Amino acid sequence: MSDDQKKSALADYLRRRQSSDDENPACPVWPDPDPEGRERRERRWSRRSKAARERRHLPDLAELILYMSFFGNDLAADVQTWAERVYPLIPEDDREDHTALRHHLTILTVSASLDDLRDTAEAFRRAGKLKRINKAVAALRLDYYSACLGDRHAPWRIAGEAISRAHDLQTPQDQALDYATAAVGWLIHAGRYEPLSADRLAGQRSRPRMDFRGDTSDFGLDVLARMLDERERRIYRRVETYFKTRTEPNRDGASPTGDAEEAGGDKLRPEDPGAVVFRSVGNVETSQRVAREFAELLNTRLRLAHKPDLAVLQKTLTDEFPQAAEIVSAILSELVPLDIVRLRPILLVGEPGAGKTRFAERLCDALALPHETYSCGGVSDAALGGTARRWMSAEPSLPVSLIRQFRHASPGIILDEIEKVGTSRHNGNPLDALLPMLEPLSATHWHDPYLQAHVDLSHVVWIATANELRSLPGPLRDRFRVFHFPEPGPEHLLPLAGRLMQDIVTERGLDPRWAIPLDGEELAALQAAWPGGSVRILRRLVERLLLARDRWKAEEEVQ
Predict the structure, then answer these.
(1) Strand partners, 122
(2) Are 245 and 295 a contacting pair, CB within 8 Å?
(3) Smallest Cα–Cα separation from 541: which of 492, 504, 515?
(4) Which tens digit of pLDDT belongs to each residue from 110-147?
(5) At what angle do helices 35-53 and 173-191 cross, to 10 degrees?
(6) Does the global pTM surpass 0.70?
């Protein structure tokens, strides 16, 4: 790749990063976990802020830290109104601390100087436990008033409170950012002139009254903007380094990726069908390991399976599963107008031993889909949907793991005995995690908790098996094409017995072509013992028959 090409790629990367309407941003993105809650909080904030300006709502401490307007848009009115409302909450007794609080609050209801606010805050801190008011919150509110009037000590307490609230996991992300902005602003305001020792700080006079509150907001926003700019530059450098490692020759003069792909012979050609599954890794700063795991797959086309010859495929599957001829025809009819293998989720329902799981595996083999069988029996957590990277056992979701393992955009996933999945939701439920993956629209941008980014799972082929439908929830059934898989009957004995015999011979390590076909007497014995039904039972009968054949041959050789 030339320098011009790399510059163009980097410019395109940043342009997509800055585009607000890009559905698949190339940069790490932390999705909004609660968009409806965010809108609800914004509407509530707008109503309360307007009510505060109109003297109909007294802001609480959290709202003041987040820069809501004072009561009547006036600091003095806010102090006076708050003192009037707090006074009745102080017990009417002769205790010294309660008497001191009532005295200081009375002063605040008339006129509040900076010294009065400091004295009242200290009175709250010295007071004993109050049943009707949180004395720590009251003292912090008075510190906030003092900070707005130019006190040199109070901003440190306000900044500490703001950063504590920002760090609280219960704080919504949008409010956490606002708390962090306030914390940075008050910290800068507290020490922006010169670093002072504790003794010198105690002797400093308060600054003249000005819009300290507005200053802190501007300071905080400015610093956070500079931090985000630096984050942009670091991501730019990471992308530039990535291009260098992918394109520049190594010490032997060979390309670090191109030669390896040619050696492997599995390079995806431009004319081959493919799809981009991974476009970004979210929150790269928290886990470089995850970024390295998926670096080669980001914005890379992964292989899709070509549609095979449907006539040949139908004959192969029908010969092996004669009882399921109609199911084979219905499934393959979905591929007729397509050039690639793309199937809607399939659910095979039938009696135990009817051959559902083997049929699903053979279907994936015939369609050239890499696949894995996932036993759902007893599974009682949502590990199928992945685990967040903050846990020691973090791992991607099952489809993402298979796509990464096979480097294939449409692996097959066989959910065996899906009706036996656990019903507990203590650690999540696999069926709940499965629902959005089966929905065509949501599967195109499914959020993987390990990657912390959207991935395209729309090409994954899902096949589930179940012995009955009653225990499956309705929303799950609605997402599947349900086929009732019939049990084989006596008329299917000949092809089934021949196939089972070949399987047994292969498992013994022999060439199936060496297998001697079943003769008339052996078939008659099987017909008498197997009237139809479970293929597992028929397999055991064939195994016994072959064992008896081997014993007979051994006795004949001895004689």
Answers:
(1) none
(2) no
(3) 504
(4) 888 888 999 999 999 999 888 889 999 999 999 999 88
(5) 50
(6) no
Among the listed residues 124, 120, 127, the one whose alpha carbon sits nearest the alpha carbon of residue 145: 120
Query: In whole angstroms, what is the distance from residue 270 CA to residue 157 CA?
Result: 61
* Residue whose C-alpha is closest to residue 189's, from 160, 147, 161: 147
Q: Coil, strand, or helix at residue 82? A: helix
Cα separation of 318 and 428, whole Å?
A: 40
DSSP for 274-335, written as a single string = EEE-B---S-GGG-HHHHHHTGGGBT-EEE-PBP--HHHHHHHHHHH-GGGHHHHHHHHHTT
How many residues does the structure list for the chain?
559
Between CA 453 and CA 445 the distance in angstroms is 9
What CA–CA distances, in Å, run from 362 to 368, 428, 463? 10, 32, 12
Name the residue type at position 528. A
Q: Which token pair is 504?
A: 């047994």
- 328 token code pair: 């084979």
Sign of CA dihedral 9, 14, 20, 25: positive
Residue 92: count of CB within 10 angstroms of its CB: 8
Q: How far apart are the first and last CA of the chain?
A: 77
Question: What is the distance between the alpha carbons of residues 327 and 300, in angstroms, rounded to a whole number?
Answer: 35
* Token pair for 379: 């599974």
d(CA 371, CA 398): 11
Q: Which of 201, 282, 273 is nearest to 459 (CA)?
A: 273
* Cα separations in angstroms, 87 against 71, 134, 248: 18, 13, 74
Q: What is the pLDDT of residues 148-167, one digit of tens each?
A: 888 888 888 888 888 888 87
How does pLDDT run across 489-545, given as a tens digit for each residue? 777 777 777 777 777 777 776 666 656 667 777 777 777 777 777 778 888 887 787
Distance, CA of 544 to CA of 524 (rounded, Å): 14
CA 54 to chain centre: 43
Instruction: Give the whole-angstrom CA distance, residue 390 versus residue 385.
Output: 15
348: closest CA among 337, 338, 356?
356
Helix (H, G, I), strand (E, B) or coil at 360: helix
Q: Which residue's structure tokens are 């900076």?
A: 114
Sign of the CA dihedral with 414 first, then 417, 422, and 425 last? positive
- Distance (Å) of CA 526 to CA 20, 272, 520, 531: 69, 48, 10, 9
Whether the CB-CB separation of 502 and 517 falls below 8 Å is answered with: no
CB neighbourhood size of 162 (10 A): 25
| H/E run at residue 462 | strand 461-466
pLDDT over 60 (residue 547): yes
Report d(CA 69, CA 48) in Å as an integer: 9
Asked whether the beta carbons of 185 and 218 are under 8 A apart, the reply is yes
